Structures are given as structure tokens and as C-alpha cells.
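Exercise 7.
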Amino acid sequence: MAAVMVWTAVRQTPTIDEPVYVGTAVVQLREHSLRFNPEHPPLGKLVVGVGALLAGPRLEPGFRGDQGVLGRRLLYESGNDPWRLMLWARLPVIALTLLFGLVVYAFARELAGTGAGLVALALYVFSPDLVAHGSLATLDVPAAGFVLTSVWLLWRARHGRSWCLPLAGVALGAALATKMSTLPAVPVLLVPAARAGLRAVSGGNSRRARARAFAYAGVVAVAAVAVVWAAYLLVDPRLRWAPRQPVPDVAGLRGLLVQLLPFPEPYRDGMRVQFGLEDASWQGFLFGRLYTGSRWYYMPAALLVKTPLGALALWAAGTVAVVAVRRLRPAAPYLLAAPAVLLAAAMLGTRNLGTRYALFLPMFLAVAAGCVLVTAAHRHRPAVPSATGARAVPVVTGARAVPVVTGALVAFAAVSSLRTFPFYLPYSNEAFGGPAKTRLRLHDSNVDWGQDLGRLAERLREHHRGEHVWLVYKGSGVPSFYGIHASDPRKMPARQVRGLLVVSDSAAARATGRLAALIASSRPVGDVGHSITIYRR
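Solution. The predicted structure, written as C-alpha cells, is:
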């Protein structure tokens, strides 16, 4: 996993969100200012910034443009090498992704043994979504991994390790200080903390037990709130707050809930910005259909396309095992409640932009999938003596098949993942045609997030030197920096658009009017990274 993520990080140009995060991180660490990107708390960006600063980036202090211009200024207009800078910014996220894999292994091993830990780790390592987003300087994998770590520590606290409670609170706080979308998990995680307090005292209904339950939940909550405050204070000890973008007014119940949050004002304003984004009109694309708004079934459908078939089978089997097997049943609320609540929140959201909003699922369900191996021991019956007095024969009801089938499904998932190398963002499983066909069913960060601009430049130099290029690119990169000198076909009459028409697949998915007509009247002659299509006119 480390090898393929580093290789991917080296080869990919900046995706849409990365320049904003990297530019904001540099400003936060150098100028101790919170003025950019308030819609996301600072911790994840500080992690990214530690790597970015090791590259020694140049950026004039006091930049006053918006956050999108900030990222472009840092990467392309300040004399920095964007390839080197982005690699250094991505390395800390890669390191965190690998550490979360160890949490997956440890969690599954504690539940069902070493074999379960290895199955869970294999599914994690070969998850195309985790490889793809774990190799980017973004916030989705860190936020999901911190939630998983908090749940694992709460499980350990359930078994008498009370010292894990404050650590669980720290991990929960790290998730909240990375992405606000993890807030729905807070009440879900406080419940097992309280239950650990009840178990610590004999006579669970006594006043003392209830006091202990409140105390345990309070430790987790206080630790989480403290981490959020610490993240903001680390950027600016004086918490000076002067946002560079308008903060919308949020009324009603949402406004009241935001006001009651025990977090710094920049965090609460960031929540208001997020609600403003939720209220905006977004376009979605699912199974070839472009629509405005959201579809509640978008996320399950996208996960069905972008998860290896072997992993899907093991996720389902693991979920059933955790609920059905008595030995595993106490772990069910830990493994299933938090991802269920976070998935429901993602399904109710208005931004149908990718499975990156549900990266907690391949983490939690990898742990559950490892627990399938417990069913092998569960189904192995004791020896039954023969009626004739012959030697007793053990009765095996499919027990030996469980490890074999599990291993085969893990291998199937691994092969599917390896076949998509090094194009992990546009992955889709074999039932939906593989990564070359993902663009027909999904868009945005599921397929094309601007990551292949550098590869396009190589293709044009090697195979289309001297040809006129018409480009519609969706991303944060600057084509001219990579040697791509192209015209915008949407600004010219169709009869004059001759030569190569190069279109990002996310732009093609949302094409209407003139661009749609140009694509329909062109002949596809190749693709770049399964995210950009080259047509000839």
C-alpha cells in the first residue's frame, strides 16, 4: 500500500481540493492566520502543512485573494516546483493512512484472532478508494481514520482499559478538528463510553454506576472539545478571526445547534459556511443521468460501483456475522452504529460528488469482514459417537470452507485492485466494466478530479506534437505550466474546432449545449488515465 500510494502521489497533478488545503496550511503555519478555508477545521490541513513546509515553499506574506487563487499562486506563480511540493504535502496523509491500517488490523485481531486481522488488513490495503484518497493531500481519509481509532479505543475501554477513554476522546476530537462532517458520530460514540462506565461498577442500575457512566462519557467529550480548541489555538493563540469569504446566516434549529457548539467562533462560522454549501444547487451524475439536486440512493449506488466485488461480499458476510454470532454481538454497536449514522448523513447531503464522503465504510467494514472467520469455529460441531461403537467422527458443517472462500474473495478483491494500478481514482469493479467505464456512470472525484493533467501533457508531446489542441479541463492545475497550449472550443464556432478535442470526463458528464454537440460530433481516439478523453475532429 505504501508503494502504490507513493507512486500515485508522484505521478498525479493537483486535484481540485488540494491546492486550497496546501495553500491554507502554509498560511496557517507561517502567518498563524485562520482567514482561509473556514469550512474545514485546521487539524488535517496542519498535517498536510507539516509536509509542505519541508519542501520550503515560497509565498509572499499577507496574500489577500480568495482561497482558490491562493492555491494557484503557491503552486504555479511563486517559483515553486508543484510536483515536489505536492509530494511532500501528500506524504503525511500517506503515513496516516498506513497507521490507520494498523488500527484496522489490531481491531479485527482483538475481535476474532490473527486471521481476522489479516483479512481485515488485506481488504483495507487493497481498497481502491483508500489508496486513491490516502495518497492525496486531502481530509477525507484522516477524518474517517480518526473516527475508527476512537471506536477501537472505546472497545478497548469496554474491557477494563479505562486509560483508553481519554485517548478515544482525543481521536474523536482529531476527527472533529479535521472535518465537520464527523459531528453526527459524537452522540453515537458517547454511548459506548457511558456503557464502559456502567460495566466498571457492579450493579449497573445503581447511582454510583450512573455517575461513573456520565463521568466516562464526560471524559471523552471534554477531551474531544479540548483537541478542537487546541487545533485552532495552535494556528493562532489569539484566535483572530477575519474570514475572507461571506459567512451565511443560518436560522432555525440549525442556527441554534451551531450556536450551542462548544467550539471557537471560527469553527461555528465554518459550520455556517457548510450549511450554506448544503443549501446551494449541485449537479449530480449517476448511471449516465445528469440531474440537479441530490438522490438519497446515490452513495449506496456509487459504493456498489467503486468497491471490489470480493470486498462487497465480505462486507455483507461480516455484517451478518457480527450481528448473528453471539461471541461477536457485543461488538456490533461499535462496528456498525457510527458508520451507519455517518452514511445516513452522507445520503441526506446535497453533494453527490463521490464516495470520498463515505471512506469510513471500507475501514469499519474491513474489520467486520475479518470476523467472518469466527463463523468457521462457530459451525464446527463436536465429535458424534457412532451408534455401532466405532470411533467418533467430528461433524464439520462447512467450517473448513469458510477460510477457503474468505481467502478466495480477498484474492479476488486484491486482483481487482491491482489491475487498476496506477489509476485508482476512476476505479470501478468488473460488474460495471472496470475503470475505463466508470465515466459512463459517475463523475467528479469518482473518476476525474483533475489528477491527470501531467499525463495528458506527456501524451500530447509523445503522440500529438504540433497538432492544434482544444481543451475543456476540470481541475485546479494550470495547463500551460505543463506545456499544454490549448484553446477553449466553447468560445468558437463548431466548424472552426478542428484537430484534437480534449475533455475532462467530469466536464463531459455535465456537458450541455455547444460542448455536448461538439463531443457528439467527434470521434474518440484515446483516453488519459481513464479521466480525460481525447477526440479527433
